[in-house]
Amino acid sequence: MLTISQLASHAGVTVRAVRHYHAKGLLPEPERDRSGYRRYGAQAVVELIRIRTLADAGVPLSKVQELLAAGPEEFEAAVEDIDRRLRAEIRERQRHRERIARLAAGDSLALPPEAVAYFDRLRELGFQERLIEVERDSWILIAAQVPDLVPDLMKGKWGQLDDGTLRTLYRDLGEVVDARPDDPRLADVADRLAGLLDAAYARAGGHVEEEHDLDPGLVALLDEAFLESFPCAPRLLELLEERGWTGWTMIEPTERRRAPRD
């Protein structure tokens, strides 16, 4: 007769597993001998090996007992069903692996190729990763909400990179991304941004032309993301408003600057 430790050793499982199978009702629990120990025979080893084999094959413990009691045809049908389930799980795990691979690729997880290329170009130009991360998160929101607009919107971003003045301003904005609200550099950034906006406004004859009309809810969400990402964002928006401009995602002239309507 075998002790529980010897039984576990012969079947290639742990004592804890044996006790678990007892608790689940898969392996009958023998009476204790006069010394208070459980004693097992060879049949218990056979039964335990069968349980272990089924469990190792991925059979849920809730079905192990059913299979152990099944006849040959029923057993075969059950095994085929388990095989189908396992193959489905393998396919699902493969999809998970593909998602993980995309995650390891970084930006490409949630952004279309044209946006990924844009951020790669920002890195080539030496822009700070912190600024890139902030803008990337905004474009993840845009791509999720209005994916069809991304290609055209990205054309505008590429055009900004071709403008040396804008490129320099954008790089300097990256320098103050984590600045305190009282950082004196914010006033200079606001002056330069307002100057560029003033010039564009004048060229347009006192009108703001938007190529795309984004949903107000999305605009509000993007503005909120900007405020959450930049500690200095509220102060920068205040400085811009003092210079006649309001908003961030959709920067517009304040009422005092707007041209009179016809």
**Residue windows where pLDDT falls under 50 for at least 5 positions:** none
Number of domains: 3
- Specify Rg, calculated over alpha carbons: 33 Å
Tally of DSSP β-strands: 2
Count of helical regions:
12
Helix vs. strand class: mainly alpha
If you had to describe this structure to a student in words, what would you say it looks like?
- The protein has 262 residues and is mostly helical.
- The chain has 3 domains: 1-62, Multidrug-efflux Transporter Regulator, Chain: A, Domain 2, CATH 1.10.1660; 70-104; 108-253, no CATH class.
- It is 65% helix and 2% strand.
- The protein is built from 12 helices and 2 strands, in the order H-H-H-H-H-H-H-H-H-H-H-H-E-E.
- It has helices spanning 4-11, 15-24, 42-56, 61-68, 72-104, 113-124, 129-145, 150-162, 164-175, 185-203, 216-229, 233-242, and strands at 245-246, 252-253.
- Strands 1-2 form a two-stranded antiparallel ribbon.
- A hairpin with a 5-residue loop joins strand 1 and strand 2 (252-253).
- The model has no long low-confidence stretch (mean pLDDT 84).
Tell me briefly what this model is.
The chain has 262 residues and is mostly helical. It has helices spanning 4-11, 15-24, 42-56, 61-68, 72-104, 113-124, 129-145, 150-162, 164-175, 185-203, 216-229, 233-242; strands at residues 245-246, 252-253. A two-stranded antiparallel ribbon has the order 1-2.
